[in-house]
Amino acid sequence: MTQDEVFNVVKKNIRDVLAHLNGHEIPIEASLKDLGANSLDRADITIQCMEDLQIKIPLVEFGGINNIEGLVKLLTRKVNE
Amino acid sequence: MRQVVVTGLGVVTAIGQGIDEFGAALKAGRSGIKSVSTAMGLPLNSAALLTDFDVDTSLSKIGDMPDALYQRARAFTRRAPLPVQSSVVTAVEAWHQAQLTDAAVEASRISLVVAGQNLNQRYGYDLQQKYHDTLEYLPPRYGVHFLDTDQVGVVSELLGIRGEGLTVGGASASGNVGLIQGSRLIQWGVADVCVVIGAMMDLSPLEVQAFQSLGALGGKTIREAEKACRPFDQAREGFIYGQGSGCLILENETLAKQRGIRPWAKLVGSGLALDGNRLTDPNATGEARAMKQALHAAEMSVADVEYINTHGTASLLGDEAEIAAIRELFGDTVSQVWLNSTKSLTGHCLSAAGVVEAIATLIQMKEGFVHPNLNLDQPLDKRCRFAGRESQPAAITIALSNSFGFGGINSSIVLRNG
Question: What is the distance between the alpha carbons of residues A70 and A66, in angstroms, rounded to a whole number?
């Protein structure tokens, strides 16, 4: 699975959780917080992405991630392992 | 002693969303009880469900509220369980009606009481079914939504409430227990305004099946939905489940006067009495004690009461016990007090029932009528003055509203118009 394909999964889940972003661009360098996601939204987006990609990643591995690109890269690496 | 007045109402039930619709349905005697498809997954035939409830539609009926409040209410409810959604809609309606949207009331002087417990049973059940084998994918927000106090958080953030806030439980008496707690907060001077929400208890198939197995639910042999709920009728078979929620704004009378708000009525007394009984059976003595306490607190006698909004679930023993309690109190004058059961229209809204029925009482008092008690073909006691098949004019200045819950929890409140 390519990084672009994983980014599309992430964008779909961001839009699902953050309705106000419908019709807006989601830049990969933005952070979820910048986009208006609260702590519950961020947790939901992460788990929904894992569910869609059918992977299970210990949450501790998300610790150092501070933008969408970091999330996409981690998910891409895990999905291709 | 500080006087407690009601300055705002909001309601969502199967017979009406919003006070105007609900009031019109009461007057018309419209039942919300319908046949329930097995596709709903609930093991019952008839119920008054919020099948066509939608947050946007309900909010848009409320009228000219600030757009920011409307947008925040939508955002706060979009991914929330149904009980949170219905509580938010009723709280916004009541808040708006009480003209609190732009009032200069100190936020720390406003309290919030959410009445009800075990509110999100269906939400938990559905997630358990879906994620049974893949628990890792459970939506993390379940960690806040499974808590009944989620509603305290959501509504306090939405309305900017910074005073005391809590949930209170009393099974099917929860609504009244919430109103009693809310009125005490004002009487004690803890708050000047108290938002009391009677929250919806969204049952899963587990609770419905348990109620069936306990013999509590109606519709056992009566399969026509419109006839299944028969409070005080000799052919009654048990309660019919209703979904709904309501909100009352209670306020210190002095503040309401300062703000120039004309209240719906005063909450002048209440009684809350236990039977000391862990089972489901009702007790006329305990119910009578709750009503007596309420009248005593209001410094009134039975001769002052013109109407009782009964608990009236249509359960076999429950209706009999309530009539015995009312007869014990009123004696020969029982034929002079109007009785009806709002549950014959809305179904039994469980934890929300006390608040929904206080609202029904206030509307009847204000508009001068008693709504029908549907399906009362053969009253279990002919000496009582039950409302008939259609609404009738009635001047009501003082009313009681009863709510009783499993576990021997008996409650009654007294409302006075003017």
Answer: 7
Q: Please say whether the beta carbons of B278 and B397 come within 8 A.
A: no
Domains and CATH numbers, chain B: 4-265 (3.40.47.10), 268-416 (3.40.47.10)
Assess contact for A47 and B139: CB atoms under 8 A: yes
Q: Which residues in chain B touch residue A47, judged by CB atoms under 8 angstroms apart?
A: 136-140
The type of residue at B292 is K
Nearest residue to B328 (alpha-carbon basis) of B284, B389, B362, B369: B284
The 10s digit of each residue's pLDDT in B389-416 is 999 999 999 999 999 999 999 999 999 9
> In the CATH scheme, what is the homologous superfamily, with its name and number, of domain A3-79?
ACP-like (1.10.1200.10)
How far does the CA of residue A49 sit from the closest CA of chain B (Å)?
A: 9
Residue B155 and residue B197: Cα distance in Å, rounded? 10
Does residue B360 contact residue B16 with C-beta atoms inside 8 Å?
Answer: no
Q: How far away is chain A from the Cα of B142, in angstroms, using its nearest Cα?
A: 9
Q: What is the ipTM of this complex?
A: 0.94
Contact B271, B300 (CB under 8 A): no
- The residues with which B252 forms a beta bridge, in sequence order, are B4
Extents of the domains making up chain A? 3-79
- Asked if the Cβ–Cβ distance from B140 to A47 is below 8 Å, we say yes
Name the residue type at position B183.
Answer: S
Partners of residue A22 in chain B, C-beta under 8 Å:
none
Number of Cβ within a 10 Å radius of residue A74? 18
Q: Which residues lie across from B194 on neighbouring strands?
A: B111, B250
Q: Are B190 and B2 in contact (CB under 8 A)?
A: no
Rounded Cα gap, residues B96 and B324, in angstroms: 41
Segment (H or E) for B187: helix B174-187
Note the pLDDT tens digit of each residue in B239-282. 999 999 999 999 999 999 999 999 999 999 999 999 999 999 99
Q: What is the pLDDT of residues B193-242, one digit of tens each?
A: 999 999 999 999 999 999 999 999 999 999 999 999 999 999 999 999 99
Orientation of helix B55-62 relative to helix B67-77, angle to 10°: 160
- B75, B136, B139 member nearest A44 (Cβ): B139
Structure tokens at B360: 């029904």
d(CA B294, CA B230): 27
Which positions ≥6 away from B233 have C-beta within 8 Å? B314, B375, B376, B377, B378, B379, B380
> Residue B71 has which token pair?
């947008």
Strand stretches in B226-370, DSSP E: 244-252, 265-274, 307-309, 338-340, 369-370
Backbone angles phi, psi at B326, to 5 degrees: -65, -40
